[in-house]
Amino acid sequence: MMIAVLRRGSNVALTKEIPGLTGVVVGVRWKTGREEVLGENLVVAAVLCDAGGKALSADHFVFFNQLSDPATSVSQLEQAMGGDDEQLEMRFDGVPAQVSRLVVMLYLNESNGLRRTLGRLREIGVRALDLRDNRELARSENLAKGLDAETALALCEVYRHGGGWKFKVVGEGYTTGVRGLAGDYGVPL
C-alpha cells in the first residue's frame, strides 16, 4: 500500500488495504515556530466512543493522567518515535464491542490566563502506522492551515466499518478548548 496523504474529511480503509492488520499507532506531530513554550502545553488525548459518538465513560478518555482505557486496547506511549511528538497505540482485537470509534484530539492545557491558540503553530499532522512494524500507512495534510483562535482540535478517527477499520482525518477546531471538545464527545471533565 502506498502512503495516503489525506485532507480533512478523507479516509482510508485500513484493514481492507492491509489484510491481517492487528492495530495502529497514531502519531501526532507539530512545529511551533518561534513560540517553543507553546509545544510544552499541548496535550494529545483519545476518547473511545459508542455508535452515538459519545464516550463510554470517563475511564474511556486516554491522556497523560490516564494512560490507557480499562481494556488496555488504547494506550498512550511513553516514548514517541519516528519524528512524532506523541503516539497512541490501538490494538483492534482488544477494543470492546461497544466501541465504534476512537477520536484523537490535540488541545492546549493552559490555566495561567494566557490566551495562546493552535493558530500560532506552523504545522500539525497526524498519521497512522502499522502496529506490527511501524510502517506509515496514511498521514494528514498540514492541519494548522486555516486555524486561528482554536485551542482544541479533533485530529482523526479510527472507526469500525463493514467488519474492518478505517482511518479518517477530521481536523475540526474548537475555540472552546478541551471543554468544548469533551462536551461534543460526552467526556465528563
Q: Keyphrases for this structure?
A:
globular, Lipoxygenase-1, mainly beta, 6-stranded antiparallel beta sheet, 189 residues, 6-stranded mixed beta sheet, single chain
Mind explaining what this structure looks like?
There is one protein chain. The protein is mainly β. The chain has a single domain, classed as sav2460 like domains (Lipoxygenase-1), CATH 2.60.60.30. The protein is 8% helix and 40% strand. The strands form two sheets. A six-stranded mixed β-sheet has the order 1-10-9-3-7-6, with no helix packed on it. The longest helix is centred in the C-terminal third of the chain and has 8 residues. It is globular. It starts with a strand and ends in a 5-residue tail after the last helix. The mean pLDDT is 94.
Specify the CATH architecture. Sandwich
Radius of gyration: 15 Å
Task: Indicate the structural class.
Answer: mainly beta
CATH secondary-structure class: Mainly Beta
Query: How many helices?
Result: 3
Largest sheet: 6 strands, mixed
